[in-house]
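Chapter summary example.
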Amino acid sequence: MTETQTYFIGGIATDVHLYTHQLKAIPNAVYLPFHKHIKGETLADYAARFALKINTEIPFNIVANSMGGMMTMELIKHINPEKVILLSSVKCRKEMPWRLRQLKYTGLHKLMPGVAFKAGVRYGSKFLKEINRTPDMRDIVVQMARSNTPEFLYWCVNAIVNWSGTEDYRSDIIHIHGTRDKMFPYKNIADAIPIEGGSHNMILTEQERITQMLLEKLG
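The structure predicted for these 219 residues follows.
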């Protein structure tokens, strides 16, 4: 019998280090790195190309974090995972906070180039208590951001802001979300499994807790 593979997709300004704990603990886990974008393509366009990375000849699951979750909502229009698990993400545009949806019309996000985004991660992470509580965690966050090119980060922000994210998605999606997520407030998320006290960075700060939950949900 062919064993089910579980593909892990990260979020903006991350790399394989985001899932260090899960890749070791979960059987048949595969990390899918982001590939280079094409200038002007949408998140839906990018997802259509990204789908080619997945072997659909055998059963598979997808676990995705933040922006990776949005991309997964586009991926499942082309492929059919056994299970879809979103972490600290949104299933449709309606679940995004108002201030983020408005950027599509104001265009203010375009004033922040990728270099500035990296700087924001580097200096902003100094003030995140949950990140600084764990030794070396901030170094990992900064290094992940550095592993992304400024051009790709700029594209990511624009793709997120302009994502259409319709509500006609499959009903069996497993959505795990922190109750203290400031990026995507829990109150906006439909049918989510709450992680009490979990922030947007809970995949890093609540590693064992999240891994155990993933093992249970993946079966």
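To summarize the output: The chain has one domain: 5-218.
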